[in-house]
Design goal:
The chain is an alpha+beta fold and 80 residues long. 24% of the residues lie in helices and 9% in strands. It has a two-stranded antiparallel ribbon with strand order 1-2. Strand 1 and strand 2 (46-49) form a beta hairpin. The radius of gyration is 13 Å and the shape is globular.
Amino acid sequence: SGIAEASDAAAILDQLGDSVDLILDGGPAHGGPASTIVDCTGPTPTILRAGAIPVTEVATVLDATGVERDLRDADAGAGE
């Protein structure tokens, strides 16, 4: 996007505003990989950006909750 990565929930809200329905605030980021972004607005979740939370962990949570998925790691291009 050309915008610096946000390091806390307030910065995310400043950058994205009303374009997101929910921001989970886990406290300030301490650097490292960018966040993993998952779009859950369609019939199946889609990884928009693979990041700090591996795709396999997202898949595990979705499986545990019974959510149908067909996730692909954007970096590796491999199906999960």
